[in-house]
Amino acid sequence: MSNNNQRKIQNREFLKAAIWQIVNDICNEEADELDVIPTQQFIASLSELVYKQAETFATNLENFANHANRSTISINDVKLCSRRNDELNMHINEFANSIVEQRVTRSSSNNIFLE
C-alpha cells in the first residue's frame, strides 16, 4: 500500500474518531436533559450516519463546482447543498451575507482619503 493511501486511511479514521467523540458528547448532554441512556451501538450508528452524510455533502459540493467548470467550491455550491433544509439554508445565507458585508466594509475602509 502506498504512503498516500495509508495517509488517506489514517485521515479517514481520525475524522471518524473525531465525529464519534462529538456525537458521543452531544448524545450524553441530551441524554442528561431527557433522562435517558444512549447505547454505544446507537452512538456508533449515529456517528456513521453523520460521517456518511458529510461524505455525501462533500461529493455534492465537488460535483456542483465541477459542473460549473470550477476547481474551487464556492458559497453558492454550499447554498445548493443546503436547499432542502430550510433552517440550515437560512443559517448559511445569513453567514454568507455577513461575509459579504465584512468584505464591503474592509474594502471601503481601504478607500478612505484624508484631506
Automatic annotation (TrEMBL):
Q: Which InterPro entries match?
A: CENP-S/Mhf1, Histone-fold
Please give the GO cellular component terms listed in this UniProt entry.
FANCM-MHF complex
Q: Which GO terms describe its biological process?
A: DNA repair; replication fork processing; resolution of meiotic recombination intermediates
Q: What domain of life?
A: Eukaryota
The record's keywords, sorted A to Z, are: DNA damage, DNA repair, DNA-binding
| GO molecular function per UniProt | chromatin binding; DNA binding; protein heterodimerization activity
- A matching Pfam family: CENP-S
**Similarity comment text for this entry:** Belongs to the TAF9 family. CENP-S/MHF1 subfamily.
Q: What is this protein called?
A: Centromere protein S
UniProt organism field: Rhizophagus clarus
